[in-house]
Fold this protein.
Amino acid sequence: MKNIRKDLFIFTIVALTLLCSLSPASAAGGQRSYVSGNFFLTLNGVKTGFIKSVDGGGIWAEVINEPSGPNYITKKHIGQPKYEAFEMQVGFSNGKHLYEWIQQTWNMARPRVSGSIISADYNFDAKSERQFTNALLTETTIPAMDGASREPAYITLKFAPEFIRSVKASGKLTAEKMEQKIFLTSNFRLQIDGLDCSKVIKVDSFTVKQGVASKDIGSARDSQKEPGKLEFPNLKITMAETHAQSFIDWYETFVIKGNNNDSKEKNGSLTLLSPDRKTEFAKIEFFNMGIFRIQPDKAQANADQIKRLTIELYVERMTFKAQSIIVK
């Protein structure tokens, strides 16, 4: 009886082992699913390095309904292909071509860029590639600065290509050796002409946007992208009321007294710094700034909290320069 139980136990183990070996990869002719852990960006044939994340870039077609015929059934067909915009997060460890794209767009040069995004597994083996052509940078989002945070942050870019193609990828992803640069949201320096910004504790996230219009190209199935208006956002900052007197004085003159002609506007800059606060990762310059609101934060009696002000300023124009392309 003991021998029968022992044989049954051994048979069960062998059977389970055989079942486990019959994986979906075996049934699919060796094709295995993979976890995409690395994304690599190229621009105009130049390797710019790995990016934090990527979204969008899908291809779809609109379904068109034709009027019903004698049989009362609606005929359907599809229209021209549509290409979704890509959205990706990047740090400051990429090649200069990526940051030049941002810089030139903000300077209203409106460059069109072609390239590809390659997805790879954790062994850096390329698995798929999406190629894009004549893309316009439509949004650049600078993350919020927060003096109390220790979280890493990334710039979010959104770009619209004229068309996208998915192709098979192979080989191993390699990039030229680049220094890894981690940006923390607490490492920033805000400067505005004639104002004390040393105690600014927060700068809200802001997005520079460029409109895009589609233009049909004759009988072609794809549409040409044309750049539209460039929009620079307002700036919102937070600081302790006890250190905001220079802002309050400017607000009194600019808003209350109405002395707000162009000569009373100011210029400034936001510098993104390395963790040791010695290296400049990027510098955003502000031109023709005007203050238009000072709002005290919600206060509660007997609360153990510092009284803060939220200050809003308009900005007519901004420029962007990453450390790798700043001309000293």
